Amino acid sequence: MNLDTASLAILLPALIAGLLVTATHVPLGMQVLERGIVFIDLAVAQVAGLGVILADALGWEPTGAAVQVAALVAALAAALLLTFTERRWPEIQEAVIGVVYVLASSAAILLLAKNPHGGEHLKDLLVGQILWVDPKRLPLVALVYAAILALWFGLRERLGRIGFYLLFACAVTVAVQLVGLFLVFITLVVPSLATYYSRRRRTLKGYVIGSLGYAAGLVASLVTDLPSGSMIVCSMVLVGAVAAMIFKRGGARYNRGR
Q1: Cβ proximity of 130 and 180 under 8 Å
Q2: Smallest Cα–Cα separation from 39: which of 99, 98, 87, 102?
Q3: CATH architecture for segment(s) 5-250
Q4: What are the tens digits of pLDDT across the range 25-61?
Q5: What is the dihedral of CA 38, 43, 49, 54, to 10 degrees?
Q6: DSSP assignment of 87-125, as one string?
Q7: Which residue has the higher pLDDT, 147 or 83?
């Protein structure tokens, strides 16, 4: 396979974007899985996307700071709401998360119903446009994610429920505008699932799975000329499934050796 300079110029920023999302979403995804609130990322990401769509409907500049603030405020509001519902009604939290997701999705569809480009906007929100990510955005994203990781690994035990939700909302808000809702979900869930029964160096294994999923998906998308977001989703699931089988066999041999 011969990748020319133009292909690499497209592939490299997209890969960096994927690695940045992986950096925060792997440890946060493991916490989501432990809490049993797997679909929270879809709900918060959809609400953040609703904030973007609402800002666009109001005529704000699509790449301006106001849109970013709108997305963040919407996501933080959803995070605070879900913090309250988890504390008040923990036994039905997953159902509440589902209602929030469907409500935000329906509101987004209603806002886009009379927009001639509504279908395109909705597709971008769901599957993203990772191949066309703006390289100029990546340094700021890296700084935001570095701060999130520092808070997570430095203060994880002291963040509490509300701290976790707010940190999660910030991470998802940035990611959904960078790679789309589907990739946000798959990056959170697949590395966590694949390493669930392999706890030794679990975070490192999750990072490897996420990185390989993005790299393989992007290369396959470039070669086949198929949608990059969907290709990465398929690649991530395949990498995760293979890794889970390898880790399971390795764990069985380790237990027998003991």
Answers
A1: yes
A2: 98
A3: Orthogonal Bundle (1.10)
A4: 999 999 888 887 777 878 888 888 888 888 877 777 6
A5: -170
A6: HH-GGGHHHHHHHHHHHHHHHHHHHHTT-TTHHHHHHHH
A7: 147
Q: Angle at which helices 5-35 and 181-194 pack, to 10 degrees?
A: 60
In the chain, domain spans: 5-250
Radius of gyration over every alpha carbon of the chain, rounded to an integer in angstroms? 18
Q: Looking at this protein, which amino acid is placed at residue 242?
A: V
Q: What is the model's pTM?
A: 0.82
Map tokens 């133009």 to a residue. 6
Residue whose tokens read 């599957």 = 127
Residue type, 29: G
Q: Which residues contact 256 (CB under 8 A, 6 or more apart)?
A: none
Q: How confident is the model at residue 22 (pLDDT cuts 50, 70, 90)?
A: very high
Buried b (16+ CB within 10 A) or exposed e, 101-136: beebbeebeebbeeeeebeebbebbbbbbbbebeee
For residue 1, what pLDDT band results from cuts at 50, 70 and 90? very low
DSSP tag of 9: H
Cα–Cα dist 57/62, whole Å: 10
> What is the residue type of 221?
S
